[in-house]
Write a structure and sequence with these properties.
The protein has 200 residues and is α+β, with helices and mostly antiparallel strands. Helix content is 16%, strand content 40%. It is built from five helices and twelve strands. Strands 1-2-5-4-3-6 form a six-stranded antiparallel β-barrel. The chain has a six-stranded antiparallel sheet with strand order 10-9-12-7-8-11. The longest helix has 12 residues, at 185-196. It is globular and about 55 Å long.
Length: 200
């Protein structure tokens, strides 16, 4: 489980396909120094198991199902990624509770610089749009954010403060970029519950 508070910006050093599985290696010294093999790490919001940890780097094996549902396949050596180790029972929850199970990918369709902030409009699939709530939480590439009060028919907007732009890569993303999205789990549970109730 994660919070969406990014602890380190890592750098992809390798992205190699072997026997249908992608071996993704990320250099992230601060995180690597604190974990052991097989621990869960969120890489751009995707929960992955570190199969090898050495010399400040972590290696992950990414199966086709994960590649299909996320934007990890597009990462190339040199790319910066958001890294967050999993929670312990003693950690503070400063963002939102996240599982690292990506619901789908979105596409950045508009960047709007404003006084003291950057607004990003992200296109989302109709199957996911129904779960969005104005001012509700959402994780974009593993970053815990709050949606704006106005939702589009197939999009939502998040507003980045300067510190978020300094601590993450979201402020550097060009229009057309794909991002991993994890929606609020509580909203999905309520939606499922109301759909499963028998009609009266």
């Amino acid at each position: 489980m994660f919070t969406g508070i990014i602890r380190e910006l890592g750098t992809v050093t390798r992205n190699e396909r072997r026997n249908g599985v992608v071996r993704l290696t990320v250099q992230a010294p601060k995180t690597a120094a604190k974990i052991a093999p097989l621990e869960s790490i969120a890489v751009n919001g995707v929960c992955l198991s570190a199969v090898r940890v050495e010399r400040g780097a972590m290696a992950f094996e990414v199966i086709p199902e994960t590649l299909r549902l996320t934007a990890l396949a597009g990462l190339r050596p040199g790319a910066r990624v958001h890294v967050e180790p999993s929670l312990t029972l003693l950690d503070r929850i400063g963002g939102q509770l996240l599982l690292g199970h990506i619901d789908g990918v979105g596409r950045l369709i508009r960047r709007t610089p404003r006084s003291g902030e950057l607004a990003l409009e992200i296109q989302i699939a109709p199957t996911l749009r129904r779960f969005l709530v104005p001012k509700g939480p959402i994780a974009v590439d593993g970053v815990s954010l709050t949606m704006g009060e106005r939702l589009g028919r197939s999009s939502f907007t998040v507003h980045l403060i300067p510190e978020t732009m300094r601590q993450t890569t979201l402020g550097d993303r060009p229009v057309g970029s794909t991002v991993n999205l994890e929606l609020d789990y509580l909203t999905k549970l309520i939606w499922q519950f109301t759909r499963s109730r028998p009609a009266r």
